Input
Amino acid sequence: MNAIQPSRPPLQPIQKRRVTPRPKRHLRQRSYQVMALESTAKIAVNVVITAVAASALAQLLPYHWSQQVKLREISTEVKLMEGHVNGLQVQFSRNFDPLQTKSIMQEQGYRFDPNQRRIVLMNPDRLEDQQTESSP
Output
């Protein structure tokens, strides 16, 4: 019996950690409060963003309408000028058309074709006035 016995560490009682029961209701209630606060903050931010967007839109709409009116005025001016430019282009091409040189010379000058007779129309009322003045 005097044999060597294996050495064992002395037995000490293992200390158990005291687990304090956490109130689960309190945690749930706190998480609901945090979620409610977060949702309220999100809604408040969205309301502020919506108000800013509505305000900006209210300021931009009259400017947009005035720009549309100006655009309509400019487009009508462009249409008028296009018609004027088309007329000038037709006149330009006519002025430089070699086949129409003779008729243009007659329109702009007092030269006539030798084979052409000049006709002068007189107002009949003026003829009577002239005859009565010269007859006395």
